[in-house]
Amino acid sequence: MKKLLRILALQFTVAAFIVAGASSPAGADTTETDAEIAAQWQNAWDTYKFYDTTPPAPDSGRSRVTTSISIQIDAPINHVFTAYSNINNHIGRAAFLKRVITHKDWCSGDTRFINFTAIEDIPYQGVIVTAKTFAQQRIHSSDYYYETDTWSDPNVVTHQKITFNRVPGNKTVVTERLTFDADATLIDFVVQNGVASHQQTQTAVKQAIESGEL
Fold it and tell me: How far, CA to CA in Å, does 53 sit from each of 64, 140, 151, 158?
């Protein structure tokens, strides 16, 4: 169990599960091709149904916790929304995030859908561990919010809704509503580390936007 908790803590640094990205060829982080990772994404989607927001059944051995975190960014909403929802802007700011592989990117009505896998290179006991988070993002640009559902080992699911609101002074408040589903014995640990990683990314993206870097 202790080993499992350490691995889970490392995997949860991939934070924002979050946003649209650009496809890349297979890199040093994995010997698998993008097509092979896309097949893994589809298997996770079909097997774990991480798009399903139904709460875990009482006798399932799984638990759900929902929480929210917010941050105010000194920049107009259009700029913040564009910068915040671009996964390329999270690389180097979300801990260990190496790249994002986009498997499918399409629009239906006013909603943009992106199926993607986030790849992390994580230092662990002197070696680099490659971790994958499979995700689908749905962007509602006209309403300034997006939703993301993710799955990662050991069978941890997140449902996220990130909203952007104008506040006086031409500033923007970003609020992330985060729902975590996990084994009941791990849920507290999952929530603690998941929230911490999202807060880290929020702070780093805020600093980059306000400094003019983004």
Answer: 10, 18, 12, 9
The partner residues of 100 in beta bridges, in order of sequence, read 118
How many CA atoms are closer than 13 Å to the CA of 175, on its beta-carbon side?
10
Cβ count near 111 (within 10 Å) = 15
Stated pTM of the model: 0.84
What whole-number distance in Å separates Cα of residue 144 and Cα of residue 50? Answer: 23
Per-position DSSP letters for 50-106, written without gaps between them: TT--PPPPTTSSEEEEEEEEEEEESS-HHHHHHHHTBGGGTBTTBTTEEEEEEEEEE
The strand pairing partners of 146, in sequence order, are: 139, 162
Mean pLDDT by 10 residues, the chain (214 residues): 44 36 44 92 96 94 97 98 88 81 95 92 79 94 96 94 97 98 95 91 95 95
